[in-house]
Amino acid sequence: MKEGRDGIWNDKNSKSSLAGSLPLILDVDDFKGDFSFDALFGNLVNNHLPSFQEEEADSVEGHGSISGSDAFANGHVRAASDATKFAQGLSSPLFPEVDSLLSLFRDSCRELIDLRTQIDGRLSNLKKEVSTQDSKHRKTLNELEKGVDGLFDSFARLDSRISSVGQTAAKIGDHLQSADAQRETASQTIELIKYLMEFNGSPGDLMELSPLFSDDSRVAEAATIAQKLRSFAEEDIGRQGISVPTVLGNAAASRGLEVAVANLQDYCNELENRLLARFDAASQRRELSTMAECAKILSQFNRGTSAMQHYVATRPMFIDVEVMNADTRLVLGDQGSQASPSNVSRGLSSLYKEITDTVRKEAATIMAVFPSPNDVMSILVQRVLEQRVTALLDKLLLKPSLVNLPPVEEGGLLLYLRMLAVAYEKTQELARDLGTVGCGDLDVEGLTESLFSSHKDEYPEHEQASLGQLYQLKMEELRAESHQLSQSSGSIGRARGASMPSSHQQISVTVVTEFVRWNEEAISRCALFSSQPATLATNVKLVFTCLLDQVGQYITEGLERARDSLTEAAALRERFLLGTSVSRRVAAAAASAAEAAAAAGESSFRSFMVAVQRCGSSVAIVQQYFANSISRLLLPVDGAHAASCEEMATAMSSAESAAYKGLQQCIETVMAEVERLLSAEQKTTDYRSPDDGIAPDHRPTTACTRVVAYLSRVLEAAFTALEGLNKQAFLTELGNRLHKGLLNHWQKFTFNPSGGLRLKRDITEYGEFVRSFNAPSIDEKFELLGIMANVFIVAPESLSTLFEGTPSIRKDAQRFIQLREDYKSARLASKLNSLWTSYS
To answer: Taking every annotated instance into account, which residue ranges of this chain make up the domain Exocyst complex component Sec10-like alpha-helical bundle (predicted)?
Structure first.
């Protein structure tokens, strides 16, 4: 701490009573910087506590356990707290410096108060000074703002002036530029007029032209000037032609310009030919730079069209006849051999790849030579498709006539359609590849479509005719097979001496599957040739209708042939029906022939059931094909799906009618054989056995056993072939006919009680068999037959009790009662009359 300062010493001398003898204790500098109260306190008491400080230091050295936190931050020992501790442990006064310290502390407090007052004064003076300076500063800022505003106004005026001067300079520059352009135009016009006067000489006289027009090194400049002169002259002639000349000078000028136009045209033609010749020579040497230079100059003549067309026309693929012949050999093979679609497909793939590679190489040259390569590529690709591809397609696709179809031996219409599909698909791929290489603005897909337009116009008719041709061929094959089978079976039948119905070609699911396969192939071609969904739906409907007609006709004819067998079998049965007054030998021969006719009927029955089963399988195949492949293609056209479903039902209706009639004939065939067996096997003694004491026979009669065995055997085919409602309807009708036939058959016999028991056993046998029909109405009828059979078993007086629970069978029961052996002897007629009267 400082011992004294002069300025502060004078202030303290007037305010403190100790100022005359004591130095200044505190100073303002003691509170500056990093202030520490501990350091300030240590500096105050160090001079008054030297012995304490020494002892404290010794104590610190001897006791290492004293914490370092007891030391002041600036290295001095806290004297006040330690002095108090020593004073408490000593008997003599431990802190004699207390008085001096108290005096020191009081003086320090007074000095602190004086320092605070001094600092407050200084702060007040500084605040006043800051306020004064702030006012001055604000005033200065206001003055500066006014000056800045003035500067901004000056800058704005200066900027406006500069802008005005700039605009004026720009206008002057524009005028100068315009004047220079006009001067240049005038100079060029003068020069053009001079050149035009040269061309305005005698017609066809090009010998007196300027060297410019004959100098090969200035061909580009000459071409440009010639085109300008030509445009000017033609435009002037056009104006003169529109307005009628009224001045003789105009007419003369017009005539003069016509001469110039003619001479310019001749010169341009000659120049263009010269450039084309140079272009060809450079092309032969593969000098691309020279070719590019010529192409650039030629672009001034008709936008370079002649140069582009000339370049494309001189390509080897278009002028070399051997290239065309090689294309034909690659695709069609050697002359005299018939190409197959697979070979044509491979050949087209190879040829089109070669064409694409050639076009790609030409594209590289075109890009390097021509200023408008897209236009050249458009011409090149168009020439490829219209010349090279079209020439090949004309040889490959010979459009057949729908009146005189090509013979099947040469592939028929199907070969043409397959070739058309292969060529169309491969050519479409070529078009896509050429589009990738580059074809400018050419609609390559549209051009490709136009190549096949004549074929696609009549495609649906050709597809329908092809399917019809395939169907006719298949039918001829099947008829030939049937004829061979008929001859073979006829020879065997004559050898055996049997009269068999003629054999027929059975319906084949394989054949129907082949029909569907043809149709699938045709549908795939429809999808290939029809780009629009509506067109595709229309063509698909036409092609699918062909399938419906083919399948409907085929299965209907097959069912009709099967019906013919049933009819022939029926004719055989009718032939051997004999009366009762014949000899035994004739009857035996007739019975043998009837057996043969029955066998023929059973064979025809089985054959028809097989036909029905295959017919159902064929229809299911068509329906599945329609659901999987056809229906989704018909959706884009409203009503097409419903119309096809209706056509499908209509096409199958004739087959359904033939099947229904055939099933009726099957029932007639079965019932005829049942009646024959009953007539041949049923004996009068079966139901009226004599009372000879022998136990009654509880077995079914022989006739019943034969009939049930026959029905079980023959109906096995019906159970396999029919299903669903068709099976239920057939078996129900057969059960009704069997029930009616048995009733009529039993009306021919007389029954005694033991015969009634035998009859009931037969009815039980029949009932058990018809239970396999799963027809509740038939089961009920045979159960009632069993009840009615009781009229032959019970005593006459018990007859009235039989019908109390079943009044519905009274009429049939009355007929049965009349067959009782004791009907007359027991006078049952009168008893029954009174019984029926009481019931009614």
So the answer is: 221-831
